[in-house]
Amino acid sequence: MQAQGKDRSNPFVNVVRLLAAGTAGGVLTAAIALPAVGGVGLTAKSTTESLSLRPEQLDEPPLPERTEIFDSEGKQIAQFYYQNRESVKIEQIAPVMLTAIISIEDFRFYEHGAIDIEGTARALAKNVTGGGVVQGGSSITQQYVKLVQFNKAKTKKEAMAAIAPTVSRKLDELRYAMAIEAKYTKNQILEKYLNISYFGAGAYGIQAAAKRFFGKPAAKLDLSEAATLAGAVQNPVRTDPTLGKTARDQLINRRNTVLDRMAELKKITVAEAAAAKKEKLGFKGTQIPGGCEESKFPYFCLYVKHEILTNPEFGATPDDREKLLQRGGLRVKTTLDPKMQKAAEQAIAKRVSTKDKPVAAQAMVVPGTGEIKAMAASRKFGDNKKKNETLINLAADGKHGGGVGFQQGSTAKAFTLAAALENGWKIDDGNSTGASYDIPTNALSPFRDCKGNRVGETHQVRNSSEGGGGFKTLRTGTEGSVNTFFMKLEEAVGLCKVVKVAEKLGIKRADGGKLQEVPTFTLGVNEMDPVTVSNAFAVFAARGEYCRPMAITEIRDRNGKVTSSKPKCKQVMDEKVADAVNEVMSGVFTRGTMTEVGGIGRDAAGKTGTTDGYTAAWFAGYTPNLASAVSVGDPRGAFEHDLTNVTIGGQYYNYVYGATISGRIWKDSMIQALKGVEAPSFTPYDRDRFGGCSKSCAPKPPKKDKDRDRDRGDGPWGNPDDDGPLDIWDTGEDNGGPITPGR
């Protein structure tokens, strides 16, 4: 009897009895009594706080949801997440899963309110005898409240406070739970609980857990699987199956406990429980790849990632944009075309090995929309240097994860050609060019930058094969890529004019720096990336319409709201000027530096580009419906590691020109990418406006040399560099140095 007397004098026993009474007055009295309990490791913030058990609205921030990236056909290509979670409706969860979680966590869930009086009373009694909080007794609603508080914590201190073993926290939990019970139905609460819970192995929410553990959606879970996941919730770290045999054994024990409880509650038969216990754990460990490292198309993925992280349209601050990407639950549809991507990858792999130090990179862009259809590179994406991997987006600029790029080389001559046509030059206008061009010093230089300053260089520009040169026109000078011709053309047109044309086409340095406005601008001294160059050439194909490079077409947020991205385009060049550019650069395939490589069986135009000293090699070309640029260079340092006497893709090269590798990759990839696609023609150029010559026409050949010239078969007056088809010795490519047959 003395023992009974002691129990009655213990204030904690009174709390238990009051809670067990189940009346509103009993709960309130219990709250008053709780702070008086001493020596059990429980505290309250204040007596005043404990007196209020009125519902209090809980702030429920959206759960962190993974963002998924899809190609243009709707196939997932990447995902990003802070927590691997994919929220689902309760109808998308197997009924047996709902039964299992209720049976083990809160079997009277549908019968009680915010607090399960019986469960709480048992827990409080257990905690007194245990000298602290040793049993929870929380309802599913209370657990949901605790997880919300824990998830929204911004600091470690806040996170620990959300799970602290204090009476004050439990009182707060009760207040919030009362409001939650009034706000939602029981099924809504259960749905929210299953979506917020952590199940171990990096899986947040029942859908991610079902896929991670068993490789199937939550709707298809069977009895054994449902019991396993229900058992994991209690201590997901201790039962994480990725941690080894001990953790797996503990998870099996928890599964069996759940099965026994379900049988005890007559939710399943004893025989069903026994059969389920005999099943193996069945953990598949389905991978949950995240980030671009795990993407099949890492370079395109990286471009999309940085587009979101750097574009103010996706958030006011970098932190806002990072959170949106990692937690926003976006469904991002992109412009990536699987067929074109495959074409680029295969063409590159055919000629450049993943083990080569020089790298090839390519981008494909749609004229008139700016949609990036493919982005590929010869190296694998990753941080394993022994495997020659790279984390640099070799096809893009620094803003989109790229590096400093490679000098553009003679592909930049296209801008000087366009500038001349804009200034009223005709296709057969030209100048007489020599074998070299000496750039004057600043004081004497005829070149002025866009600030009006004279700019010069201590540099002699030479031709690689034109010898003594001769008279070149816009057509023949472009087809032969004659360096000295373009230096004189830039001098005549004006350096600033050429720079302004390039800028109108979207040309900018890969590193984000200011363009170098120097005399050799026309020879491509600025470092570029394939996306920028291909998009600039797409302007010619689109008859002068510039479109911002575009990788994202649609974003669906977690609430199903769809935001479509439309092309951002503007007319930057007279249509007829672009037509004339297309007419001239079409000849590069038939009479110029791509003659040996050949065309692609449809209207196409383009420009080769080999840099001074063979530090990089390019080809940029286009049809009316697709533009592409291919670069080849050594990212270790183009000047220290040039493209002379190198082995690439198992083949040795004395010199690598624009047509040597880049041009062939371009041809192979474009043929495959456009297979089955209509083949429109370029708009014929305006012959009245651009035909013939007016400024500086070629001199008429002496009559006495006419027969001799015809016998030579080259040019109208015997100069093999003046007109007609170029042979392998007359490629004119590009900026100095000897030329070898077949390059």
From TrEMBL:
<feature type="domain" description="Glycosyl transferase family 51">
    <location>
        <begin position="74"/>
        <end position="262"/>
    </location>
</feature>
<feature type="compositionally biased region" description="Basic and acidic residues">
    <location>
        <begin position="702"/>
        <end position="714"/>
    </location>
</feature>
<dbReference type="Pfam" id="PF00905">
    <property type="entry name" value="Transpeptidase"/>
</dbReference>
<feature type="region of interest" description="Disordered">
    <location>
        <begin position="690"/>
        <end position="743"/>
    </location>
</feature>
<feature type="domain" description="Penicillin-binding protein transpeptidase">
    <location>
        <begin position="366"/>
        <end position="626"/>
    </location>
</feature>
<keyword id="KW-0511">Multifunctional enzyme</keyword>
<keyword id="KW-0378">Hydrolase</keyword>
<dbReference type="InterPro" id="IPR012338">
    <property type="entry name" value="Beta-lactam/transpept-like"/>
</dbReference>
<keyword id="KW-0961">Cell wall biogenesis/degradation</keyword>
<dbReference type="GO" id="GO:0009002">
    <property type="term" value="F:serine-type D-Ala-D-Ala carboxypeptidase activity"/>
</dbReference>
<dbReference type="GO" id="GO:0008658">
    <property type="term" value="F:penicillin binding"/>
</dbReference>
<keyword id="KW-1133">Transmembrane helix</keyword>
<feature type="compositionally biased region" description="Acidic residues">
    <location>
        <begin position="720"/>
        <end position="733"/>
    </location>
</feature>
<feature type="transmembrane region" description="Helical">
    <location>
        <begin position="12"/>
        <end position="37"/>
    </location>
</feature>
<keyword id="KW-0328">Glycosyltransferase</keyword>
<dbReference type="InterPro" id="IPR050396">
    <property type="entry name" value="Glycosyltr_51/Transpeptidase"/>
</dbReference>
<keyword id="KW-0812">Transmembrane</keyword>
<comment type="similarity">
    <text>In the N-terminal section; belongs to the glycosyltransferase 51 family.</text>
</comment>
<dbReference type="InterPro" id="IPR001264">
    <property type="entry name" value="Glyco_trans_51"/>
</dbReference>
<dbReference type="GO" id="GO:0071555">
    <property type="term" value="P:cell wall organization"/>
</dbReference>
<dbReference type="GO" id="GO:0008955">
    <property type="term" value="F:peptidoglycan glycosyltransferase activity"/>
</dbReference>
<dbReference type="Pfam" id="PF00912">
    <property type="entry name" value="Transgly"/>
</dbReference>
<keyword id="KW-0121">Carboxypeptidase</keyword>
<keyword id="KW-0808">Transferase</keyword>
<keyword id="KW-0472">Membrane</keyword>
<dbReference type="GO" id="GO:0009252">
    <property type="term" value="P:peptidoglycan biosynthetic process"/>
</dbReference>
<keyword id="KW-0133">Cell shape</keyword>
<dbReference type="InterPro" id="IPR001460">
    <property type="entry name" value="PCN-bd_Tpept"/>
</dbReference>
<keyword id="KW-0645">Protease</keyword>
<dbReference type="InterPro" id="IPR036950">
    <property type="entry name" value="PBP_transglycosylase"/>
</dbReference>
<dbReference type="InterPro" id="IPR023346">
    <property type="entry name" value="Lysozyme-like_dom_sf"/>
</dbReference>
<dbReference type="GO" id="GO:0008360">
    <property type="term" value="P:regulation of cell shape"/>
</dbReference>
<dbReference type="GO" id="GO:0006508">
    <property type="term" value="P:proteolysis"/>
</dbReference>
<comment type="similarity">
    <text>In the C-terminal section; belongs to the transpeptidase family.</text>
</comment>
<keyword id="KW-0573">Peptidoglycan synthesis</keyword>
<dbReference type="GO" id="GO:0030288">
    <property type="term" value="C:outer membrane-bounded periplasmic space"/>
</dbReference>
<protein>
    <submittedName>
        <fullName>Membrane peptidoglycan carboxypeptidase</fullName>
    </submittedName>
</protein>
